[in-house]
Amino acid sequence: MLQHRITVHLPPVGSLLRHAGIPLLESTLIPLALFWVLFTQAGFDAGLYAALGWSGLAIGRRLVMRQRVPVVLLMSTMLLVVRTVVGLWTGSAFLYFLQPTVQNFVFAVALLVTLGFERPLLAKLADDFCPFPEALTGHPRIKRFFKRVSLLWACVFLVNGATTLAVLATQTVGNYLVVSTAGSYSMVALGIGLSLWWFRRSLAGEGIRLRIGAPAAA
């Protein structure tokens, strides 16, 4: 167990941003951008293959280099396979984009279902974005924090899903991509801000202080 009044050092900000940004780029932003470029230049099917092809290459590269595959990349690729099959089968952009909207509700349910696990899904996803020390993740109060903050993120995904569903039903594909992407990342940013505030408050209750950057040399 962690001792009272100690400082936990996390990597520098640049390292944290790289650690968090790479899985986000690989799993969402780049596939979305490739789909839009190929969709507008070569058609719907080309956009589907481009997005799925990128995700497959991202996982393949990590496997060849014997690197850990982020949970968020693995989950997004599995879901993208289903989306691509449905898109190719139906030829419907509406059904293709309906699936990530529905996935918001799926993620919300998954977060709630895994609340009973030793480490809920949210705690495992957090490993992809910030490498917390083992002593910190194993602390009883931190375990309780991840269970409670899972409820917050379930609400974020539910609201996000309902909002993007409304936009998808009323806007064109281009407008949907712009509005839903901006709205989704705004919701995510708000959720991250609230989660960080809650996290620091949970640590403070145990006399634990977070400090960004390596400890000073003795």
UniProtKB/TrEMBL annotation:
Superkingdom field: Bacteria
Q: Where are the transmembrane segments?
A: 33-59, 71-90, 96-117, 151-170, 176-199
Does the keyword Membrane belong to this entry?
A: yes
Name the InterPro entries for this protein.
UCP010219 (IPR016566)
Q: What are the protein's UniProt keywords?
A: Membrane, Transmembrane, Transmembrane helix
> What is the protein name for this chain?
Intracellular septation protein A
Q: In which organism is this protein found?
A: Pseudonocardia xinjiangensis
